[in-house]
Structures are given as C-alpha cells and as structure tokens.
C-alpha cells in the first residue's frame, strides 16, 4: 500500500495502539509515528521496539499536522485527552479510538471536542489479548479480525472512509454499528465473559485452600480464566462505562444460574443435558464459522 498517512499520533502505546502502529508500518501505510503515554519508560521501550519513531513532547504541536490521531488508552482516560487535543487539531486531522465501549466515548467526544466533533470517527478493534503494554504489541494482531466503526452523523463520508482505510491497511475487516448496538452486543459477548472469569478467579483467591485447588487446575480452568489475567484498569473502565447493558446481561446470566441450580438440586438429568446440548451446538457452530 502506498503511504496513506504521513504522520500518526498515538496516545497510549500499549497492546492496541502499538499493534496499530506496527501493522501500518508493515503495510508501508505510514511514514512517521509519534507516541504519547503515561510513563517515559514505556514510551522508550516502544521506541526501542520500533513501534514509534519519536516520543511526543508537545501535544499541541504534534496533533496540529497529524493525519490521524489514535486514542488507545483505557476508556476512562479519553475525555481528558479529547479536551487536551481538540483545540490544536489541524483542519484535516482525523481522530479515532480503539476503546472497547462506544456510548461513553461518543459522549466524551461530544462533551469535549466542541466544533471538532466531525473529526472524530469512533472505532473498536475486536482483537486483543490478556497481555498489556508495548511489549505485547504485534504487527498481525488485526489480521482477519473485525473492527467496528460507530460513525457520527457529523462525520463526512471521506472521514469515515479514511479511518476505514487505516484499519483495512492492518488487514482488518471493517463493519459499522450504532454505538448503542455496539455496547449491547459487546456487553453480551465480551464484557460479561470477562466479568464472569474475574469473578471465578476472585472467588478462588479468597479461599484458604486456593494453592491446593490451583495445583490441580488444568486446561478447562486455563480456557475459562485466560481473560482474568487482563488489565484491571482497562476492565474497571469498560465495566463502568457499559454498566447498564452489562447489568442486563448479568441479570440474565443469574437467571440461567438459578435455573441450573434448580436442575441440580432436583437431580434433573434431562434438563441439564438439554442445556448442555443447546450450548454445545451453538458453540460448535460458532467455532466452525470462525475456523477455530
Ligand atoms: N486488550 C484488549 O484485548 C483490547 C481489545 C480491543 C480494545 N481494547 C481497548 O483498547 C484500549 C487500550 O487497551 P490496551 O489493551 O492496549 O491497554 P494497554 O495497557 O496495553 O495500553 C494502554 C496504554 O495507555 C497508556 N495510558 C494510560 N492513560 C494514558 C493517558 N492519560 N495518556 C496517555 N497514555 C495513557 C498506558 O500507559 C498504556 O501504555 C482500551 O480502551 C481498551 O478498552 C483493548
Ligand atoms: O482475547 C482477549 O483476551 C480479549 O479479551 C479480546 C476482546 C474480547 O474478545 O473480548 C476483549 C476486549 C475487546 O474490546 C475486544 C476483544
């Protein structure tokens, strides 16, 4: 791909921001990547790993001539960053994000970007890992993975197309949802599973015999709890940002557990097997379609 972006500025050069930079570099889609972060050591590590060319010093100056700014911090940090960058954005600078929730991020943009709102195209790559930080970044993280854009009515077609192009240059498959649809979907298939995994491991962590239990934990435990090793700060922000939809999913899940509990108490083998069979069929069909 010809160099589509001369300069990209990334706030939060961790797994998501760092992988975006590496993917665009690999595709020869960017000439210069400038990074801002919370810790000088992490940014220096990102520079040494070849993720960014330079560590940014002056926000106003760097965003003024950037083609694209990516916000890739925990979602709770984005409002303040939007307020900081907005007055200095160049007329043609686009801003996008990688946040896992969209309703709160869009609300933050509306509250903090004023007349620059049309320059913000919200996005969420549906790819990731339980690992954090620049060292976890991978050039192929987004290959074949979905990226959801939740464009605003204020965005021009050209702006949405430019942000789409950036993610397509990472070899991602881009689709569009409204922010509300997005948050409802990901409450069910991403946010609730993380909450459940954290809850299971947290419960074990309280027990006196946890070392004994963990010494016998094997692949079933590993598969269910991999995501409980994810960033607590990131998941705190996601859970609070999407708490209405997440609470709805949690209530439905508690209903399911109550039903299972009754079936167990009653020794209702047929009911249990029917639940497991329905779940297995849905899971197997999904895995086949995903090629997993
Ligand atoms: N990890 C995943 O699986 C995944 C997947 C899709 C989207 N996301 C979203 O992407 C975003 C980043 O997640 P990640 O996994 O890359 O996390 P990460 O911890 O690997 O990286 C985040 C980086 O942001 C930096 N940061 C925090 N506050 C900052 C601030 N105010 N200014 C500048 N830098 C700041 C941190 O120091 C860190 O380097 C989050 O919003 C998350 O919800 C994560
Ligand atoms: O693979 C993982 O570890 C993930 O948690 C990735 C995952 C998910 O699939 O739930 C997590 C959060 C995101 O916003 C997008 C993707």
From TrEMBL:
PANTHER family tied to this protein: PREPHENATE DEHYDROGENASE (PTHR21363), PREPHENATE DEHYDROGENASE [NADP(+)] (PTHR21363:SF0)
Pathway in which this enzyme or protein is active: Amino-acid biosynthesis; L-tyrosine biosynthesis; (4-hydroxyphenyl)pyruvate from prephenate (NAD(+) route): step 1/1
InterPro entries: 6-PGluconate_DH-like_C_sf, NAD(P)-bd_dom_sf, PDH_C, PDH_N, Preph/Arog_dehydrog, Prephen_DH
Protein's name in the database: prephenate dehydrogenase
Pfam assignment, any one: PDH_C
Catalysed reaction, written as an equation: prephenate + NAD(+) = 3-(4-hydroxyphenyl)pyruvate + CO2 + NADH
MF (Gene Ontology): NAD+ binding; prephenate dehydrogenase (NAD+) activity; prephenate dehydrogenase (NADP+) activity
Native species: Ferrigenium kumadai
GO BP: tyrosine biosynthetic process
Protein EC: 1.3.1.12
């Amino acid at each position: 791909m010809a160099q589509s972006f001369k300069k990209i500025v990334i706030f939060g050069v961790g797994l998501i921001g760092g992988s975006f930079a590496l993917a665009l570099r690999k595709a020869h889609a960017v000439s210069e990547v400038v990074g801002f972060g919370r810790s000088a050591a992490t940014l220096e590590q990102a520079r040494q790993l070849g993720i960014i060319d330079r560590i940014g010093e002056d926000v106003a100056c760097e965003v003024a001539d950037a083609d694209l700014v990516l916000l890739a911090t925990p979602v709770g940090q984005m409002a303040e960053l939007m307020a900081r960058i907005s007055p200095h954005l160049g007329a043609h600078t686009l801003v996008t994000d990688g946040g896992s929730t969209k309703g709160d991020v869009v609300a933050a943009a509306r509250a903090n970007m004023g007349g620059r709102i049309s320059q913000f195209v919200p996005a969420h790559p549906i790819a990731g890992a339980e690992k954090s930080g620049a060292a976890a970044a991978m050039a192929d993280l987004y290959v074949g993975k979905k990226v959801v854009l939740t464009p605003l009515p204020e965005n021009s077609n050209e702006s949405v197309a430019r942000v789409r192009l950036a993610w397509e240059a990472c070899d991602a498959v881009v689709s569009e949802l409204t922010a509300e649809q997005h948050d409802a979907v990901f409450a069910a298939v991403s946010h609730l599973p993380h909450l459940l995994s954290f809850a299971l491991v947290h419960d074990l962590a309280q027990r006196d015999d946890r070392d004994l239990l963990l010494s016998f934990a094997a692949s079933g435990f590993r598969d269910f709890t991999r995501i409980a090793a994810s960033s607590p700060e990131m998941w705190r922000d996601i859970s609070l940002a999407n708490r209405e939809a997440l609470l709805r999913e949690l209530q439905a899940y508690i209903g399911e557990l109550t039903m299972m509990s009754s079936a167990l108490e009653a020794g209702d083998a047929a009911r249990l097997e029917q639940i497991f069979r329905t779940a297995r069929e849905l899971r197997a069909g999904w895995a086949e379609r995903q090629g997993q």
